[in-house]
Amino acid sequence: MAGSVTRGALSLACAAMLAAPAGCAYSFTGNLPGHLSTVRVAQFRSSVQEYGLEQELNSLFVSELISGGRLSVVTESPDALVECQVTGFFRTPYSFSASEEIEEYKLEMRVSLEFTDLVTDQSILDDEPVDEWIVYDPDLEEYSTAKQRLLGIVAEEMARRCISGW
C-alpha cells in the first residue's frame, strides 16, 4: 500500500511540474469587453522632431495586436479605435567614464494613448501616458538598433494596456 501511495504522489508531483510552465505563458487575453473583436488603428501623430518615429511605432503596434490574437485590425466597421500621439523622444547621457566621456545613453519615449469602445461610445483609455526607456552603450549597439528595441518595448506595452484596459 505504501508503495502505491508513493508512486501516486510522485506521479502527481511530476504532472504538476510539467503543467506549471504552461500556466506561466505570456498572453494578451486581457480584460476587454466580449463585444470587442475588431479595432481600427488611426495613423499615429507626433510632436517630436525624430522623423518617421510615429510610423515605425504604428507598424510595430499593429503587429503586436495581430500577434496577440485577441483583436483583429480592420479599416472599416471597427468595434474599437486606437489613437496615439508621440509626445516625447529623448536621448540623454546616462553614464560617464572616469575621463568624463559618455559610456551609455538613455533613450526614452513618451506617448499618449487613447482606446475607445465604439459600440458603447465609451473611453477605455483616455490620454493614457506610456513612458518607457532603455540604456544602451554606443560601442556595443548602434543608435538605430537601440531605437528599434525601444519602439518594440513601447509597442508591446501599448498593446498590453489596450487589451487589459489599464
Protein architecture, described:
- The protein has 166 residues and is of the alpha/beta class.
- The protein has a single domain (31-164), classed as 2-Layer Sandwich (Double Stranded RNA Binding Domain).
- Helix content is 36%, strand content 34%.
- It contains three helices and six strands, in the order αββαββββα.
- It has helices spanning 2-23, 53-68, 143-164; strands spanning 38-41, 45-46, 72-73, 80-96, 102-117, 122-136.
- Strands 1, 2, 3, 4, 5 and 6 form a six-stranded mixed sheet that branches.
- Helix 2 crosses helix 3.
- The longest helix is centred in the first third of the chain and has 22 residues, at 2-23.
- The radius of gyration is 22 Å and the shape is elongated.
- The model is unreliable at 4-28 (pLDDT under 50).
Task: Give the SSE map.
Layout: H1 2-23, E1 38-41, E2 45-46, H2 53-68, E3 72-73, E4 80-96, E5 102-117, E6 122-136, H3 143-164
A few lines on this structure:
It contains 3 helices and 6 strands, in the order H-E-E-H-E-E-E-E-H.
CATH domain class:
Alpha Beta
- Indicate the overall shape: elongated
Which architecture name does CATH use? Answer: 2-Layer Sandwich
Task: Assess the beta-strand content as a share of residues.
Answer: 25-35%
Q: How are helices and strands ordered from N to C?
A: HEEHEEEEH
Structural class: alpha/beta
How many helices does DSSP assign?
Answer: 3
Low-confidence stretches: 4-28
Number of domains: 1
Rg from Cα: 22 Å
Q: Quick one: biggest sheet?
A: 6 strands, mixed
Residues in helices, as a percent range: 25-40%
